[in-house]
Specification:
It is globular, with a radius of gyration of 25 Å. The protein contains 4 helices and 35 strands. Strands 29, 31, 32, 33, 34 and 35 form a 6-stranded mixed beta sheet that branches. Strands 5-6-2-8-9 form a 5-stranded antiparallel beta sheet. A 4-stranded antiparallel beta sheet has the order 1-7-3-4, with helices on both faces. It has 549 residues and is mainly β. Strand 21 and strand 22 form a beta hairpin.
Amino acid sequence: MSDLSASSAPVSGGATVISGAKSAVTNEYAIEVKQWQLYEQLKVTIGGHVFSASSVIEGFRLDAPGGPQCNGKASLDHFVAFNKAAIESLTGGTVFVRPAQSGSGNFELVIQAKTGTDLHGGQVSAAIDRGKSLHLPAHFDDQPQDNLVTVTRNGEAVVVPTPAVNGTVHATIDLDSWNARDTLHVNIGEHAFTGGAGANPAESLEQFVATNGAAINAVTGGQLAIEHGDLVIKGSSSLKGGLISASMERGDLPSAFTPDVALKVTQDSGGSTASNAYEAPAPKKTASEYRIEVGPWMEHQQFQLTIGTHSYTSYGVFGIDTAKSLAKFVDMNKAPIEALTGGKISAEGDTLVIHSDKGLTGGSVSAHMDEWNGTAIDISATAYVEPIVPVKPVEPVKPVTPVVPVKPVEPVHPVDPSAGTKTDTGLNFTVDSGGFKDGDAKVVLKGLHLGTQNIAGREDTVDLSFTIDLVANTSRVKPIAGASLEQAVNTLFKAGGELDGSHHTAGLFGYGQDVYLVAAQQAGTSFGSDDVIIKVTGYTGVVDHSDFV
């Protein structure tokens, strides 16, 4: 990374940290996950940002080098689905998953620079947050982070710095208690940091420092440490980054009555100045309002809202109470989200709303729900229109000979769900053909209710010009990657690919933040004129054979 400092910020707890000189060119970072149990979170820190996602049961590995694990490709694909856009925006690189180059049999997350460029974003670290595990609130095996996850830079193992923490205490987060299943939230300006409980309060604090210390140090210019059972940030001068607040998110049954508890934070007069941590260039105003409809939201599911290069999370309350879960999310993340966007955030029943008459800042918005296979939640946005400032009228000019208008290019319109034919179970859509146009699919279907697992209890069907013999990925959306959508789709038609032509096959595939239904009619090494691609938005359920006529 071109903006790395010569020495790394101190991190305790064994998290792997990358450091380098400004002249060093970084081609790629590879994060190999060695051990990752169900419900644990992989946390990757880049500068002042922490990106995270839980493991998934899909692809559970009995043959993993460290014993039965959820560290297969599916869990890393899940991480990529949650965080790809934000990480690529921050680093300027490309994020993907591959088998570990160490030959261990594990898989690794790769952040790779584009040709002729260098990665940016700040220091990088990786750690496993073990606050929620398969059988217990937290693991008791006292494994160091280097046994769980390692990082290489340009193929070389990184050095873990362990400098002493010095300076004066400038902020203290008073922790009265930290129970099993609780999650600590610390907000600094527009940044949000979280950590699950360890086997005991002491391990909980150590784990929080291991998974968040590097980012908090980058944002504040200080050093995160543990003193007398509390978290403190020390430094030789006042802290940067903004106002600090903290809360404890309750888990299990207590969350139904008291979803979160505000913690006492003592902060000196500093903290109002900007952070020294690298930030991606601030984008322009994106919208005047975002509305994110969520649900159903179950207790152990984690909701993540991503705005630009920042992410904000919380778990559901005990039982299924989406409205109360959203109210808790707003309560714990209100300050940093409003600092980032310049708007106001609120929960209206099962809908999360961010609004500003003056336009929202911070970057593009996406939302995901854990255990939904990384499928993005549909978001409606109201475009921001700059106010028109009256100007003094100008003198009329002499008319000129009018230009003969050219025939406009006919735009591609989404297929209106009302245009489908009504059936006993839902709607039937006839799609005779569908290819690419301007880098995207020509045909768009909105609001499809697929299979038998959709929340609307309705099943729609798609009528293609050929019969579908086989459905791929019936349990999830398979992520695909490539320099363009068409290149990514072509990989499915290669020998051994999902759509290699051995059957008339269809499936759902994810590219970036979008999902596509791709169907193959004939064998071939790439997408052909007889094949079909349809962009699907706002759908529910998972695709199966019953979705095709």
